[in-house]
Amino acid sequence: MKPTKTSSLIELFISLFKQFFLRSKESVFWLVIFPTILFLILTTIFGNVEENVELKVKILGESKMLENIFSDIKQFKAEFIIFASDAEKSSKLKELDNELRPGKIHAFVVLPENFDSEFSIATILQKTKFQRKVLVNIYYVPIRQESKLAGDILSSVFNSLGTREEVSVETYKLSEGEFEYNEFIYPGVIGMAILSVFIFGFMSEVEYLYRRGMLRRFYTTPINIINILIFTALVNMIELILGISVLSLFANLKGVDVGKYLPSMVLHVSIACVLLTLLSLNVLIFSKNKPSRIFVLGQIYFQVQMFAGGFYFPLKFANPVVKNFARFLPLTYTVDALRLPKHLNGFEKGHILVPIIYILLLGVNLLIFSKRLKVAEQ
C-alpha cells in the first residue's frame, strides 16, 4: 500500500524524535533534568530562611496576656506600641506601615481597645449562644519569606486563642526591597531551559543534519526541508515541556505558586519558542553551517542573555548600563513577563511587543536569505 503524505510526515517526526530525544541521553539530562537540578541548587543555597533568624514584630495595642505568650516564642521579638487617642493610633499605624514596606519589621498586629478584657469575656461566652470572637488585624508581606513566616506564626497564635483574624495582604513592590527568592528564580530557570533547548538542542541538531548530509537526500523527495526543520523544533519543544513540567513539580514542593504562573507561561514561552527557532536558523545561515562559528555564536548569545538578561538577579537593582543593555535581549522580556503575576517584573511594558518585533525581523531575514540554507548544505 502506497504511504500517504500524512503517514510519511508522521514517520519522519517519529524518526527525528527517536534520533534527537529517545536515543540521546545527553538531551534528556541537560534539557529535561538539569533545569530542575539548577533550581534546587539555587533555592537551597539562597532560598531558605536561616534557623537563627530573628523575626521583628510590633503590636499596636496593650495586652499583658500576649506579652507573656510572645516572650515564650523562640526567635520572635515582639514590641508593644501604646497609644493614648484615636489620632495617635492612626499616626502609629501609618508609621508601622512605613516600617513594614522596606522590611524594617516583618509584621505588625493591630489590637482592639481593651484586648485582654474583650478576650476574657469572649472566653466566658464561648460555649453559650452569645459567643463572640475578638477581631485583630495582622499585616505582613507574603512575598517576603521572613515576613510570611512571621505572619504564619501570628496567625497560629491568634487561631489557638480562638480570636478572629483579618489578614491584610500588602502589595510589595520589587523595587522597594526584599523578595522571595524561590518565586523569583523559578521564571529565570525556565528562561535558561528555553535557551538551552534551542541553542544547544535545536541549533546543534540542525547543524548535525547538514554536516552529515542527511538533508541532501530529501531534496529529490516530496518532503519539504521546512517540514524537517519544523519537526526538529517540535521535538525540542517536547523536551522543553517535559523539562518545565519536572521543574514545576519540584518548584511546587518548594512552595512556589506554580499555578499563578501558568497562563503567562503558556503565552510567553510559546512566543519565545518561535523567536529562538527563527534566531537559530538565522545563525545557521550567517555562520555558513560551520560548527566552530555556530558554537561561538551560540555560546556568546547564551552567556550574554543568561547573565545580563536578569535571569538570576532583579533588573530593578541593576545599574543603568546593564539594565539598558538587557532591553535589547529578546528573552529578557519573556522571563520578565513570567514574573508579572507576582509583581517581580523589572520592566513595565514591551513583554509582547519586543519579542514580536524580533520575530518579524528574523522572519523577514530568513525569507530573504533562505537559499543560503541550501548553499550551506552543499
Automatic annotation (TrEMBL):
An MF annotation (GO) of this entry: ABC-type transporter activity
Transmembrane segments: 28-47, 184-204, 225-253, 265-287, 294-315, 350-369
InterPro entries in alphabetical order: ABC-2_transporter, ABC2_TM
Membrane topology per record: Multi-pass membrane protein
Subcellular location per the Swiss-Prot or TrEMBL entry: Membrane
Domain of life: Bacteria
Domain ABC-2 type transporter transmembrane: 25-369
Keywords recorded for this protein, A-Z: Membrane, Transmembrane, Transmembrane helix
GO cellular component assignments: membrane
Protein name, as recorded: ABC-type multidrug transport system, permease component
Species of provenance: Fervidobacterium pennivorans (strain DSM 9078 / Ven5)
